[in-house]
Design goal:
Elements lengths: L12 H9 L4 H10 L5 H7 L5 H13 L5
Length: 70
């Protein structure tokens, strides 16, 4: 992924954001949370099928750790 840098030689905010939400399933998961903010894991898993359950759990953990979802 191309990156830009600020004057302090730090990645710019756009680059940091794209690095955090890049991946095959994160965009779809975030889209589902925009549609509805309160999901049970089984419902979310069914809505992003064919995402493997372990992958969904991993992606959700990363999105939570990064502060994108509660």
């Amino acid at each position: 992924m191309p990156s830009c840098s600020s004057t302090q030689n730090q990645p710019c905010p756009a680059t940091r954001l794209l690095q955090k939400i890049s991946g095959k399933w994160k965009g779809i998961i975030l889209y589902r949370f925009i549609q509805q903010s309160n999901w049970h894991f089984g419902e979310l898993n069914a809505s992003v099928s064919p995402c493997p359950t372990r992958m969904l759990a991993r992606q959700l953990a990363q999105l939570c750790a990064d502060g994108f979802i509660p």
